[in-house]
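Shapes recur. Our protein:

. . .
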Amino acid sequence: MFEILAQCAHVAVPEPSEEAVRFYQSGNVLWIVQQAWSLIIPLLFLMKGFTGKLGSIAKSWGRNWFFTIAVYIVLFVAIYQILNLPLDFYSSYIRMHDYGLSNQSLERWFSNYGKGTLVFLIGMVAFLWIFYLLLKKSPKRWWFYSGLVGTALSFFMMFIQPIWIDPLFNKFGPMKDKELEQQILQLASRAGIEQGRVFEVDKSEDTSMLNAYVIGFGKTNRIVLWDTLIQQMTPDQILFVMGHEMGHYVLHHIWWSLLYYALLSFVIFYLTYRSAHFLLNKYRDRFGFHDLSQIASLPLLLLLIGVYSLLTEPLSNFVSRTMEHEADRFGLEIAQNNEAAGEAFIALQQKNLAVPRPGPIYVFWRASHPPLGERVDFTNSYCPWTEGKPLKYESHFSQ
C-alpha cells in the first residue's frame, strides 16, 4: 500500500499497553452490542405492533397530517432515547471513566445528553415530514427524491454544524498560543489557504483524548484543534497534524465525502424501498400499519436503513481510509518533518489507548483511519524531497 523509499525517520511503534488491549477488545464487544441494539429497538416497535398503536395515538392527538407526524416523532424519540440511555451512559461515561479517558462530570454528561436529544428531536420534526410527503405524493419514486433531499440536507447540516450545533456542547475560540497560531497560518498560506480559520475547543473539560478535525464548507469551513492536543503535543507535531487537516481542505475531501454519501444514499433508499414494500405486504397486520406513507412506518424504514448502512460500512471505511492516507501524505510533504509526524501518531496511540496494529476484521468493519502502526511505517519511509524527487501535491504549495 505504501511507497518504500529512503529511511526518512526512525520512529518505533511501541507495543500497546495491557490497558489499551483491554480497551480495544472490550470496544469490539461493545460495538457489536451497539449495532445489534440499534436494530433490535425498531424491530421491537414493529414485531410487537407498538408502532401502529403509537401512530393511532399520534393521529388522535395531532389532528392534522403534519402534527400527527410531529407528535409521533416526539413520542418515538422519547421512548427511543430512554431505551438507549443505559447503553449510551455505559459507553460514553462509565467506560470512558474506567479507562481514564474522561473527566466529565455526571451533571455535564446528562446536560450534553439532553442537548443532543433535543437537537435530534428538532432535526427530526423539522425535516422528516419532507420524506413522508414524498412517500405520500410519489409512492414509486420517493426513494429517488429522498436521495436528492437527503443530499441537500447533508450540505445544509455541514454548513450549520460548526456555528449552531457544536458550540452548544463546547466553547470554541481563537488559539491561545499566538506564536503557534502564526506558524499554523503561515503553513496554511503555503498550502494556498488564505484567511484560514483555526479554532481551539475546550475538550479538556470532557476528556484527556487528543483530536483535530476539519469541518464545514464555504464561510463556515474551519480547522478545529482540541486543547488537549495543543497541551500534549510539541509545536512540530502540531504543525504536521495541521498539515494533515489542511490536506483534507485542499484536496476537497469534504466535497468528495458528500458526493460519496449522496450516491450511497440513493442506493440505500432504493434498497429500502424494495425491501419495505416486500415486508409490509407480508407483515402489515403484525406491524399495525398498511402504508409506508404512514408515520408508523418509521421503525421499518430505520431498521432497513440501519441494516444497509451496516452492510456498506466496509466500503465507507475504505473510502475514508484512502482520504486519510492522502491527507497524511499531504501533511508530510508540506511539513517535511517525518520524525515529528511519527511521534504525533505515537502520542495519539498512547493518549487515546489505541492498538497500533488491529486485526483485519476490525480494519474492515470499523476503521475509518489507517491503523496507527501503518501510518508510522509510512512516515518512516516516505520522503521523496530528500532524493530530489517530485512531490505528489507540490502543485498546491506556494513558495
Remarks:
- Residues 1-144+262-399 form one domain.
